[in-house]
Every structure is written in structure tokens, then in C-alpha cells.
Amino acid sequence: MEILLANPRGFCAGVNRAIQIVDRALELFGAPIYVRHEVVHNRHVVDDLRARGAVFVEELDEVPDAATVIFSAHGVPIAVRQHAAARGLSVFDATCPLVTKVHMEVKKYSREGMEMVLIGHAGHPEVEGTMGQVEEGMMYLVSTVADVATLTPRNPEKLAYITQTTLSMDDTAEVIVALRQRFPQIQGPKKDDICYATQNRQDAVKSLAPEVDILLVVGAPNSSNSSRLAELGGRLDTPTYLIEDASQLRRDWFAEVSKIGISAGASAPESLVKGIIEQLQAWGASVPRETAGVEEKVIFSLPLALVQAQSRRQEAGQASGEAV
Predict the structure, then answer these.
(1) Residue 323 has what pLDDT?
(2) Binding site membership: which residues?
(3) What is the DSSP string of 117-135?
(4) pLDDT tens track for 226-255
(5) Is 322 annotated as catalytic?
(6) Which end of the chain has a smaller Cβ tally under 10 Å, C or N?
(7) How far apart are CA 172 and CA 163, in angstroms?
(8) Which residues are noted in the entry as [4Fe-4S] cluster-binding (predicted)?
């Protein structure tokens, strides 16, 4: 059996940044560090951080006074920020900068007195955070073309749309067409809000899926990014399995398979891919081969407050050493 690896795959810049923020906070301030929601949607990442002293909570009411709290990469509603400020909590924001870009667009449209349509999936933390940037009733959530058909904004002439970053261009294209047909004056962002990492990983799967007999997507079922990759593989008529790690592999999947494709969602660490490769090789697979793909060079900087806190600690350490 031959293994072909999608390229790019796995961690994106936003996920790397979010994990680094929790890592750095634990190093600087020690445990416990509180994190609102899973910092990224991956059980293995969350379990590792939890073992080191991160405490994951659903709401700020679970966070003690004077504690340090981190907002997840998916973003939070304005009300959560206000709650944290009112309580005097020390906050470090791990919201992905691409999600923050969408929030800025929301604020711009709001200042212009416009209602908004968010193309996204109900219940996803990013959707919760984006809809929470404006007063209730100012934003409508749609997921499908059918949702657009029942949409009844108060003023169709002052309407704009935005998108959840982890949806595919294919998913949003039909909905955007439906919105423009029903509301010809609707405005949209100057540049598509689809995350570069989401698009790159989906493009890689589009290229890989037709070349293999089976596609494995490494990621969590609650990860929108990973789930979309698995759905894409299925739409391309390639038997596709979304798995969290090697323990979920079944040998009978590969009984008549000569080529195996592997991709990974933006919140899945490469260590999980390596574990799957090792298991497949134990069943007779060859050394994996990387496929050609886009080279990602995006790096997001850490929050300034966290960088400053680290600098102060280093200066204090140097001063202490000089005193000795």
C-alpha cells in the first residue's frame, strides 16, 4: 500500500498562535490558566494543555476572581469581553486574526446602520462570537440556499453578508449567489473571508482524493475545518473517514486498497498523522510520499500584553542574576 500525504495539512497559523498563547501563559504565570471553550477543536491538544494546568470552562462564571483567562481561537461575543473587564480578569485573546477581521467588518457595517447575514453553522463557537458583535436582531444566520429563501430582513436595501471563516468556497458560493439574487443591493466584504488555511487544505484534498482509493482525514468531529475536508472527499466519490487518531483505524478498510491518502484539519497536530502512518506501515504500507502543494508562510504574532509580560520576566531574571 502506498501512502500519499496532502500538502498542506494540519496546524495553521491561527491554531499555532492560540496554542502558543496558552503555553506562554502557563510558563509565565503558572497553573491554573483558564480557557473559555476549547482553545482549538482537538481533544489531544486540549488534553495536553489540561495536563499542564489549563482549565477549560464554558463561561466566565466558572473562573475565579483575579484569575488569568484566555479566549479561544474562535472568538467571543462583546458581552463576554465586557464581563471579563467588569470582573477585572487578566485576559489574553487567542482569537484568530482572520476571525478578528470578520468582527471588524461586522462593526463597520453596524456603524453604517446595516443589518447582516452570517453564512455559517449554528452552534459553532465562531458563529456565536461573530453574532455577539452586534445587538440581537441585527444579524441573521443562514447555512443553506433554503435558509435564504425564508430570510426576512427589516430593510433589504441596507443588508450585508459575512461568512464563517472555516467554510469552503464551494459551500458559500451557492449561498452568496442566492443572497445576491434575492437581495440585489446586498453588500459583501471586499475580500472573501474564507481562511487561507481552510482553502489550501481543501484544494489539497481536491487534488489528492481522485488519486487514492481511500482518504483519511485526521481531526475532531466538532472541528468545522476537518469535517468540511471529510465532506469534500465524499463529494469526490472517494471513500473517506474522519478519524481522531490511529486507534480509530480499522484494518478491513484497507483490504483491497493500493493507495491511501491522508490529510489533516487545521487543528490536528502532525504527531497524530505520524501515529497513523506508523500503524499503516505495521500493516504493510510503504514509506509515505508528500504531494506537491502550497507552501504556507503565514505567522501571526502573539498578543502584545503577553510579549510584554515575558519581557518583564526576562528583565527581572537578568536583574536578579546581576544582583547575585
Answers:
(1) 53
(2) 12, 41, 74, 96, 124, 165, 195, 223-225, 267
(3) EEES-TT-HHHHHHHTTS-
(4) 999 999 999 999 999 999 999 999 999 999
(5) no
(6) C
(7) 8
(8) 12, 96, 195
As annotated, the binding site for isopentenyl diphosphate includes 41, 74, 124, 223-225, 267
Cβ atoms 39, 45 nearer than 8 A: yes
Q: What does the DSSP 8-state code read for residue 183?
A: -
Q: Which of 126, 128, 231, 270 is catalytic?
A: 126
* Residues comprising the chain, all counted: 324
Cα–Cα nearest to 152, from 176, 128, 183, 131: 183
Distances (CA, A) of 88 to 14, 30, 65, 85, 92: 26, 19, 8, 5, 13
Rounded Cα distance, 225 and 166, in Å: 5
Whether the predicted pLDDT of 6 surpasses 80: yes
pTM of the predicted structure, to 2 decimals: 0.92
Whether the pLDDT of residue 324 is over 60: the answer is: no
Q: Which residue is it, cell 461586522?
A: 106
Q: Where are the beta strands (DSSP E) in 202-275?
A: 214-218, 240-243, 259-264
